[in-house]
Specification:
831 residues, alpha+beta, six-stranded mixed β-barrel, 26 helices
Length: 831
């Protein structure tokens, strides 16, 4: 029996394909699968590539930081997971050249360093550099260019590091993993790890930092991390590339969220097209279903046959849809190879599996509810064609659709709470639009007779009002189409503006560190005389957080947060009379000038350590213990490349404690020679060059912009498909109505005017509702998901109704031209 049912479903499928009944449904499903697959593949490849660029800042995919060499058991576990390993040792030391000496940040590396990223070096200081694929050989050192004038050495000269003499071989200009802690940098000296013991510098109790760099597949890295966490003590810390830099991490996270939401918008539009195509498919099966009922088929048998047919459609569409999706993303990558990363990793199998499953989920979520009508077809319809089954409950239709979207959105975002929030907001917006539709149509119906419009325009308006059920569905489809496209466009604009604002043209490209208090005024004068744009100067006081509300800090925080980096090291404390630029107060208030009480805490560390307004925090600085009450919580724009701090105090609290000063400034490329004067005038100051890091971030954001633009194109295609589906779903009624009007003396021009007028009104009403829905959704997404500032988008209220009227007017005119071309007699004979 099951085999006969499957055979019959297959025959139905072939018959409906030959007759053209399935073309629109297949096109809609193909669009959903292809778009989902293309976006998932492109997103995964781009995210893997961007993740690789983020890893360059760490020098690896994962790093274990420790004050001592890593345990052998941990290294064996890394080898078991087939991870690449490289060891790095960093420590401060004094280097000597003749009578000159200089404090340096020494870095001993293996030949495999770095596992991610690269080193740039030059054959002579202050000359053109290049990417090098080697590291210092045994007996060699590479020096940062500013060390050459400080030590008065040249390439080929000898210097003394500890007890060993080395030859200066190159000028090192960039290590991509030198980001992060801007406050601990002295001029760089790099040498071979095999030479460490010869220097005699490292002794028991020496202050050193061992870094074990690891690289490999993410699955292997996570497995390795979970297997060794119990082996590490409180002084050892694991860092993943995603966690190493806030400036890159936040941008990548926002891009992932945007790509996920944009892909869901495209799938939503394809789903709407599936719903409209399924509705038309269902209506055109009423008569054949009635015949089957007359021949003894039960409701269940009829429904199972139709369900099996559509299941076959979904399965047959999946493979070509995935193939088209692969081809589309490959085409996009080929077209954009000049701006995309030079090497895009190949994606896994999961995006293709999810793309194929999207067809099934989309058909079930958006197409199943209309098919439930077929169970209610009466056998009497064979004799009385006006016996149309009642449509499925609106709540059932919306519930199926919402469930499908939640499942797909959960996969694309990977965040359940965000998915749940979007689902609730979408449901609320859908309810607002539906209620608004009914109220709007009722009001138009009451006023339609009073409007001074041409008679055929009034007829089009009457048709919209009188067929309220079908009109609501079509208007809802058009509204969702315009709304989805508008939301992505608005978010795209907000994201790009945010990225551009984070890195304006004159973003600070140098940090000046370790400025002595006696040099502050002279340093300010140097910046002013040379017309150098700079941030404010901030004092740096090294201190440790010891208590929260008189409870030892490790006992006051949760067990999960005891490994937080702020508890395992000294913090950079500062004082300021004004709220720093790129900081925003979220709670509390800023202190008045001269105040002796107050403490402002950055929101992330406050959340991690459970710090709230009014809490008392105790610190120790150079043996001096003091307590301050938290008066405000701040949001910090870490991407600004300006000095930022976890803890800021009033001036009177810290001004008598020992401090060094820092600031950041922007130096134009043509003024780089001013650095030589700055180094000579302030020999104890450390300069950190950020040009390479900023260039890397800008390149990544440019690539992210390309991904955003690609999403808009996919949405445009999906939107056109929805319009075609809606127009096609009503074509039978329009043919019959057109034939009747023509039979009663109406001209082709009058008929075309009525049809075009109806679609123009459709577009204007749908645009108006879409503007309202876009404002609601963009407000929630900006404030709750992307953490952007929301402002009303006034142009939506003009452009969406106007654009909707034009687009739907033209689309409708193109779609219904056959209504005026068909012979009325032929149409009426079919009826």
């Amino acid at each position: 029996m099951k085999a006969r049912g499957a055979s019959l479903s297959w025959r139905f499928l072939l018959r409906d394909w030959r007759s053209g009944e399935l073309w629109l449904l297949v096109a809609s499903l193909l669009m959903a699968v292809a778009v989902s697959t293309a976006i998932a593949l492109f997103s995964e490849r781009l995210q893997l590539a961007l993740g690789r660029q983020v890893a360059e800042v760490l020098g690896a995919d994962m790093m274990i930081r420790s004050p001592r060499p890593i345990q052998k058991t941990i290294l064996r576990e890394a080898e078991k997971q087939n991870l690449k390993i490289s060891t790095v040792l960093e420590f401060p030391s004094v280097v000597m050249a003749g009578d000159e000496m200089q404090l340096v940040s020494a870095k001993a590396v293996e030949s495999s360093y770095p596992l991610r990223g690269y080193i740039r070096a030059a054959d002579q200081p202050f000359t053109e550099d290049r990417v090098v694929d080697n590291t210092p050989a045994v007996g060699e050192v590479w020096l940062e260019p500013r060390l050459f004038p400080l030590l008065k050495v040249a390439i080929g000269d000898s210097i003394l590091l500890g007890e060993e003499e080395f030859i200066v071989a190159k000028a090192i200009t960039l290590e991509t993993d030198r980001g992060g802690d801007f406050y601990s940098f002295s001029p760089r000296l790099m040498f071979n790890l095999e030479d460490v013991d010869k220097t005699g510098i490292i002794q028991p109790g020496s202050r050193v930092k061992w870094k074990t760099l690891l690289a490999g597949e993410r699955k292997a890295l996570l497995s390795f991390q979970s297997s060794i966490e119990g082996m590490l003590d409180a002084s050892e810390r694991i860092l993943l590339a995603d966690d190493s830099r806030r400036d890159l991490r936040n941008s990548v996270v926002r891009l992932k969220q945007f790509l996920g939401l944009a892909s869901m918008a495209a799938i939503l539009l394809a789903g709407v097209a599936v719903a409209m195509a399924s509705r038309r498919f269902t209506e055109r099966r009423f008569d054949s279903t009635a015949v089957m009922r007359c021949l003894g088929a039960s409701r269940r048998q009829v429904f199972n046959l139709i369900l099996a047919e559509l299941a076959l459609v979904a399965l047959l569409v999946a493979l070509p849809g995935v193939f088209i999706g692969w081809w589309l993303q490959a085409g996009v990558v080929s077209l954009l190879q000049g701006v995309l990363p030079a090497w895009l990793p190949q994606p896994g199998v999961m995006p293709m599996l999810v793309g194929g499953a999207t067809g099934v989920i989309t058909l079930a979520g958006f197409g199943l509810a209309p098919l439930l009508q077929l169970q209610e077809v009466s056998p009497l319809r064979v004799l009385r064609r006006e016996l149309t089954p009642a449509p499925a409950s609106s709540w059932l239709v919306y519930s199926f659709s919402l469930l499908a979207m939640v499942l797909l959105l959960w996969y694309h975002t990977g965040e359940f709470l965000m998915t749940l929030g979007i689902a609730l907001v979408s449901g609320a917006v859908l309810l607002v639009i539906s209620v608004g539709l009914q109220a709007l149509l009722a009001r138009i119906g009451n006023k339609a007779g009073l409007l001074s419009l041409p008679v055929y325009w009034r007829m089009g308006l009457k048709r919209i009002v009188q067929q309220r059920s079908k009109t609501s569905a079509q208007l809802l489809a058009f509204s969702l189409t315009f709304m989805a496209m508008a939301i992505v466009l608005v978010l795209r604009t907000d994201l790009l503006d945010r990225w551009q604002n984070e890195l304006p043209e004159e973003t600070p490209n140098y940090f000046a560190i370790n400025i002595q208090p006696s040099e502050v005024e002279e340093y300010r004068d140097f910046l002013e005389v040379n017309d150098i744009d700079s941030s404010a100067l901030y004092p740096i006081i090294r201190g440790r957080l010891t208590k929260i509300n008189d409870v030892a800090v490790r006992e006051a925080v949760s067990k999960e947060d005891r490994g937080h980096n702020s508890l395992n090291r000294e913090l950079n404390l500062t004082w300021s009379t004004q709220l720093p630029k790129n900081n925003t107060l979220l709670e509390g208030h800023w202190w008045k000038t001269g105040s002796k009480r107050g403490l402002s805490v950055e929101k992330e560390i406050a959340g991690n350590l459970g710090i709230e307004i009014g809490d008392n925090l105790t610190f120790i600085v150079s043996g001096y213990e003091f307590t301050q009450k938290v008066s405000s919580i701040r949001k910090v724009q870490w991407e600004s490349f300006s000095p930022n701090f976890y803890m800021i105090f009033p001036q009177s609290v810290l001004q008598d404690l020992p401090a060094t000063w820092l600031n950041s400034f922007y130096l134009k490329p043509e003024n780089k020679r001013q650095l030589n004067s700055l180094i000579v005038q302030f020999p104890t100051m450390t300069l950190l060059d950020l040009d390479a890091v900023i260039s890397q971030v800008r390149k990544m954001l440019a690539q992210s912009t390309i991904a955003v633009e690609a999403m808009l194109f996919a949405l445009l295609v999906a939107g056109l498909l929805v319009m075609a589906s809606v127009i096609e779903s009503s074509i039978d009624e329009r043919l019959q109505e057109g034939a009747l009007i023509r039979s009663l003396g109406g001209t082709r021009k009058q008929l075309l005017t009525m049809q075009a007028g109806e679609f123009v009104l459709f577009g204007a009403l749908a645009g108006l509702l879409a503007a309202a829905g876009t404002e609601l959704c963009s407000y929630w997404l900006n404030t709750q998901v992307f953490e952007l500032t929301w402002e009303p988008v006034l142009w939506l209220w003009i452009s969406l109704p106007l654009g909707g009227a034009i687009v739907l007017g033209v689309s409708g005119w193109l779609g219904v031209r056959r209504v005026i071309r068909q012979s009325p007699s032929n149409v009426l004979k079919e009826v």
